[in-house]
Amino acid sequence: MNIFRLAGDMSHVFSILVLLLRLRVAKNAQGISVRTHELFLIVFLTRYLDLFTTFYSLYNSIMKILYIVSTASIIYTIKFQEPIKSTYDKSQDSFLYWQFAVAPCAVLASVTHLIGSGISGFSFIELLWTFSIYLESIAILPQLIVLQRYREVENLTGNYIFFMGAYRFLYILNWIYRANFEAHYQHHWVVYICGVLQTLLYVDFFYYYFKSKKSGGRFTLPT
Amino acid sequence: NPVFGDHDEL
User: Fold this and answer.
1) What averages of pLDDT result for each successive group of 10 residues across chain A (223 residues)?
2) What is the DSSP code string of chain A?
3) Are A139 and A206 in contact (CB under 8 A)?
4) Which pLDDT score is estimated for A199?
5) Which of B5, B7, B10 shows the shortest C-beta gap to A9?
6) Residue B2 confidence (pLDDT) above 70
7) Do A129 and B7 touch (CB under 8 A)?
8) Nearest CA in chain B to A2
9) What is the pLDDT of residue A32?
10) Could you report the predicted ipTM of this complex, rounded to two decimals?
11) A191 interfacial to chain B (CB closer than 8 Å)
12) Are A214 and A148 in contact (CB under 8 A)?
């Protein structure tokens, strides 16, 4: 554990809390993509199956459970809790996630897992873990698309997406730190590539986020 | 043994 990794994890937790708070304070789901969180729930459920097989640390287990429970809670709040439920506009959140996210990531994960491990080293848990890495890298896409449609970004919504992006950016710093200071550190290229891709998807958002913070004005995206 | 990554990371 290093400071970047811890800051990344905390940033992730913080973003989820900010979103839950935002839903409860504003009592609406305008500009929020439930599909992004459904993708994240799939990511966490497929990645954290090792909760049942391996114990790493109390910190590790608690965070995994926290991510799963809080993400499920976001989905539940938006889809089932009134009055928020009736403010959620399904037609704006229409990203075809099975076709464009889940299926391609499943194919890609199967190919890389077979190349990396071979038939003899095949492990279903490892395969799902690899799948989750791919899926996470693009899980924010539905949210970015919804944002683009609403264009005006509410303060807390902007903050939640910012901390979501900061999380993966801090993980990149964590990998750089580990590669330099850890003995026997192994490079993991699939994780690096997906982590960088995930961070790059936020670059445009970061740009307008900081611009609006600097000017103190309203946060709007260009057409 | 994990092939692609450190499973201790979240």
Assistant:
1) 96 96 94 97 96 94 97 97 94 94 97 90 92 98 94 92 97 97 92 97 94 86 83
2) --HHHHHHHHHHHHHHHHHHHHHHHH---TT--HHHHHHHHHHHHHHGGGGTT----HHHHHHHHHHHHHHHHHHHHHHHSTTHHHH--GGG----HIIIIIHHHHHHHHHHHHHHHTTTT--HHHHHHHHHHHHHHHTTHHHHHHHHHH-EEPHHHHHHHHHHHHHHHHHHHHHHHHHHH-TT----HHHHHHHHHHHHTTHHHHHHHHHHHHHTS-EE---
3) no
4) 97
5) B10
6) no
7) yes
8) B9
9) 96
10) 0.84
11) yes
12) no
Give me the residue label for tokens 């539905």: A142
Q: What is the pLDDT of residue A108?
A: 97
Cβ distance of B10 and A56 shorter than 8 Å: no
Is the separation of the CB atoms in A58 and A13 below 8 Å?
no
Is the confidence at residue B1, as pLDDT, over 60? no
- Residue A48: partners with Cβ closer than 8 Å, 6 or more residues away: A64, A67, A68
Distance of CA A3 to the CA centre of its chain: 20
> What CA–CA distances, in Å, run from A10 to A4, A7, A110, A223?
10, 5, 31, 33
Please give the angle made by the CA atoms of A217, A148 and A36, to the nearest 5 degrees: 115
Pairing relationship of beta strands A152-153 and A219-220 according to DSSP bridges: antiparallel
Round to whole Å and give the CA distance between A34 and A98.
14
Q: Which residue has the tokens 């970004």?
A: A153
